[in-house]
């Protein structure tokens, strides 16, 4: 068992109607500065993954989203923290993404994700996205 602090992170793979994925670049300060990431953040008390993702995306990017299908969970230990990324597809309901808590935003094709410098835990997500044949209907809620 690790003595590192443990975090649960709600993570969104936001896909638009053209099949592009939204990524954002962390600011140039703090842990993992200037790394690209899938938007999201830490759970607050009492939140489930979907609630966390909706709240974090509103705070970070100023948009309203619909959380769709669960993609995967990624457990990863960094030297300073242990975490689980709970990753869901999402789709924008309203608004245009803004850089409220990040340095830059880009819409990229799934095959372009490998061209960006992500934190280590994100590479499993990239591999899974790139292995899928299509992103059609990936943001439709499970029924």
UniProtKB/TrEMBL annotation:
Its EC number is 3.6.1.55. Keywords: DNA damage, DNA repair, DNA replication, Hydrolase, Magnesium, Metal-binding, Mutator protein. Its cofactor is Mg(2+). The keyword Metal-binding applies. Residues 5-133 form the Nudix hydrolase domain. It catalyses: 8-oxo-dGTP + H2O = 8-oxo-dGMP + diphosphate + H(+). The keyword DNA damage applies. PROSITE patterns: NUDIX (PS51462), NUDIX_BOX (PS00893). Belongs to the Nudix hydrolase family. This is 8-oxo-dGTP diphosphatase.
């Amino acid at each position: 068992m690790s003595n590192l602090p443990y975090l649960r992170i709600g993570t969104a793979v936001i896909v638009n109607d053209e099949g592009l994925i939204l990524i954002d670049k962390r600011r140039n300060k703090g842990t993992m500065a200037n790394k690209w990431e899938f938007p999201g953040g830490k759970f607050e008390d009492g939140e489930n993954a979907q609630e966390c993702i909706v709240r974090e995306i509103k705070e970070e990017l100023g948009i309203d989203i619909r959380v769709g299908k669960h993609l995967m969970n990624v457990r990863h230990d960094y030297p300073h923290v242990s975490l689980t990324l709970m990753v869901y597809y999402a789709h924008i309901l309203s608004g245009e993404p803004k850089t409220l808590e990040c340095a830059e935003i880009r819409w990229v094709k799934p095959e372009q994700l490998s061209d960006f410098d992500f934190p280590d835990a994100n590479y499993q997500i990239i591999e899974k996205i790139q292995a899928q044949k299509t992103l059609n209907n990936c943001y439709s809620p499970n029924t």
